[in-house]
């Protein structure tokens, strides 16, 4: 996978660090995600997936999201 490969956070493999490119959720949801640290250019690591949820690490904090929210976060593989 190259650095130009775009995917959603729900597609990111476990253990992979990705860079957030843009959010496509409703404005109020995007605002809340940004408040939690899911900002454009932030580095996020996928820690665990299961039962329709994903646990990510952003700014040394673990946050759980459902796959619906994760599909609205577009990312690319971080260097």
How would you characterize this protein structure?
By secondary structure, the chain is an alpha+beta fold. The chain has one domain (6-77): Ferrous iron transport protein A (FeoA) (SH3 type barrels, Roll), CATH 2.30.30.90. The protein has 2 helices and 6 strands; from the N terminus they run ββαβββαβ. The protein has helices spanning 27-35, 67-71, and strands spanning 6-8, 17-23, 43-50, 53-58, 61-66, 73-77. The longest helix has 9 residues, at 27-35.
Give a brief rundown of this model.
The chain has 79 residues and is of the alpha+beta class. It is built from 2 helices and 6 strands, in the order ββαβββαβ.
Which structural class is indicated by helix and strand composition? alpha+beta
**Number of structurally distinct domains:** 1
Can you tell me the CATH class? Mainly Beta
The spatial strand order of the largest sheet comes to 1-6-2-3-4-5
CATH architecture: Roll
CATH topology: SH3 type barrels
Provide mean pLDDT, rounded: 90
As residue ranges, the low-confidence spans are none
What is the CA-based Rg, rounded?
11 Å
Helix content: 10-25%
**CATH homologous superfamily name?**
Ferrous iron transport protein A (FeoA)
- Secondary structure tally, helices: 2
Order of helices and strands: EEHEEEHE
